[in-house]
Amino acid sequence: MRKMMQSKGFTLIELMIVVAIIGILAAIAIPNYLDYQMKAKTSEAKSNIGAIRTAEEAYAAEEGQYRTAAQTPTGVTSTKQPWVGTTPFNDIGFSPSGDVYYGYGVLAGANSTVSGVSSLTGSSNGNATLTQGIIMYGVGDLDGDGTDYAFYSSNTNTEIQDVGTKW
User: Fold this and answer.
1) Is residue 3, in this structure, part of any structural domain at all?
2) Four-point Cα dihedral 56, 120, 80, 167, nearest 10
3) Residue 71 contacts by C-beta under 8 Å, 6 or more apart in sequence?
4) Do 143 and 167 form a contact (C-beta atoms < 8 A)?
5) CA 65 vs CA 52, 110, 134, 154: distances in Å
């Protein structure tokens, strides 16, 4: 009769063990999730810089010169910003779909030297040097710590380079 009267449930110790296990799993999973989230956001820059490069090459084939474009959007924040198509980007036929995390720009010049992403984009990190042709760049501050992170590519080195410290 006594066994039938026992209540079924969890003891306080069992509940504390479950909470501890959940805490350990969260401590492992959350940093990994944040890292994957940042990597996904950086893929936007790589994709858009590749698209800008393709559009610039098509424009240069038709017009005989590359088209420069000032950084747009100009403010670098950790949140998405609306893309406002400017004339240079419209001329080359580039427009990203939706809002963007990075500000994008294009510098062009035959036999001119452009040194330092910092002097070009307002980024405080690293350098990118171009001696001829064009350089396409994207600069953003994904984690909101005030330190910009930039990607760039040129017509002479189509590999997308990164500049600065990651998030």
Assistant:
1) no
2) 120
3) 103, 104, 105, 121, 122, 137, 139
4) yes
5) 15, 9, 10, 14
Domain of residue 62: give its range: 10-163
- Residue-wise pLDDT tens digits, 126-151: 444 444 578 888 888 888 887 788 88
Is 5 inside any structural domain? no
In a domain? residue 4: no
Please give the DSSP secondary-structure letter assigned to residue 6.
P
Q: What total number of domains does the chain contain? A: 1
The burial of 121, by beta-carbon neighbours within 10 Å (0-12 exposed, 13-18 middle, 19 or more buried), is given as buried
What is the pTM for the complete model shown? 0.71
* Residue 152: strand pairing partners: 137, 161
Q: Judge whether 154 lies within some domain.
A: yes
**Partners of 106 in beta bridges:** 69, 136
Q: Provide the 3-class DSSP secondary structure of residue 165.
A: coil
**pLDDT per position as a tens digit, 92-112:** 999 998 899 999 988 876 443
